[in-house]
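To whoever is covering the structure queue this week,

Two jobs came back overnight. Logging them here so there's a record in the thread.

Job A:
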Amino acid sequence: MAVGELRDQLDLPPATLTAHLNQLRAAGLVTDEREGRVIRIRADYDRMNGLIGFLTENCCGGKSCVPAVKKKLR
């Protein structure tokens, strides 16, 4: 997806999107490619799935990572 299109879809300020994309690039979760004046972002799904698997196994102990619902106080 083109960075401009992604920014429009997410309705984020350019600086905010750039900061997020830089973090994703640093983690190897996305790559970018220049096509003339357009920069396209591509997700690395294998790496993302590996990260999700690692987090599920090591952070959630193999259980659901959905947080427990807190009871409302009266």
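Job B:
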Amino acid sequence: MKSYDVAIIGSGPGGYVAAIRCAQLGMKTAIIEKYATLGGTCLNVGCIPSKSLLDSSHHYEDAVKHFEAHGIEIPGEIKVNLEKMIGRKQAVVDQTTTGIDFLMTKNKIDVYHGLGAFKDSTHITISGDSKEEIEAKYSIIATGSKPTSLPFATVDKERIITSTEALKLKEIPKHLIIIGGGVIGLELGQVYKRLGSEVTVVEYMDRILPTMDAGLSKELNKVFRKQKFNINVSHKVTKVERNGAEVTVKAENKKGEIVEFKGDYCLVSVGRSPFTAGLNAESAGVKLTERGQVEVNEHLQTSTSNIYAIGDVVKGAMLAHKAEEEGVFVAETIAGQKPHIDYNLIPGVVYTWPEVASVGKTEEQLKEQGIAYKSGQFPMRALGRSRASMDLDGFVKILADQSTDEVLGVHMIGARCADLISEAVVAMEFRASAEDISRMSHAHPTFTEAIKEAALAATEDRALHI
């Protein structure tokens, strides 16, 4: 039996990053993955493939709608080759997962393929092509999450699908019905909307992106309606039926009326649930919460002191970069260091176009907590860079403490906001004031100028370009 300092169950962003950091710190490390490829949901059927399709569909939409305005003329009809588009997506995934294989080899991490299950607190059985057992002084649970199902919607993976199937369809849906107006549903909805599908979103809450700042939800809703999305909020789905190639979704609106939506595909996108099936956690004395999450303390330590858990399987936002931070945190904790994570400063991003990004407190949270604040907002359309690229939708909003001017939250929607949000994270990590940001030179013309202008607006209501 092989013995290790640390064994990690799950090779998603949290798991493989934890493995690398453990190895860097001199620990003999093993990682266990039940699937044939490393990288977990994010690299195989999540972040990476969805962004690949978003980029491809964005190029297509630009060619159809915007090239002419730029003086680019393409003779003949512009067509979508979905098979080739899906093939490019898979090539990106393959290249990325192969890169993880390289990193494991480079860092001398032993990789086991099979289902990892605890025999006890220091022994893990691995059921793959053959069954084997390893011993580990410490273990890290990084088993991730799976799409949440609805009791009345049987996912057949053909017409009633999850995000996994939506990433490899053989045809462009005529009418895609999406249950859930969150990140995953909106991103995949925009992919197929660009390619020619009619898209209907059915959301239980009173707005899309219900966990983000209400201003962002309102702006994206306005943009999506302009793009001819059919958005239905405050609708409680009660039934999903398939009859051949037709899917019917029934929902109750806020008036209590039952309404029907008919399409050829239905994407069930109502969030994700922690995945612990087959882990045999109880044999190691690891407790789970009522929601199926692994119970951890502030050090991400489970009820069994030598076992930790990270990522989607524990409390908090289900984000790849959050899992990565936790992976590093646990590795350094095991090594006797004193790392920290500020969960308030982990950004959230929606990769639609315009992109949506947020960090810190929302206006709703500040009001609820009774914190006096001031707000500065600047529209993207007032930027020279936005006019040059024809990306006019959106804004940047900065929320700062009324008395100290410390930045408490930054919320933005517009071109390249997925990248712009990092400026806000850096500023808030160093507890910058709105005035600090407003006095920093920002290159012109850039999208980041909107951050400076929003900071000026929050400081003394003195934005320069509106």
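Note for Job B: The chain has three domains: 2-147+273-341, 160-270, 345-460.

Please reply-all if you pick these up so we don't duplicate work.
Q.
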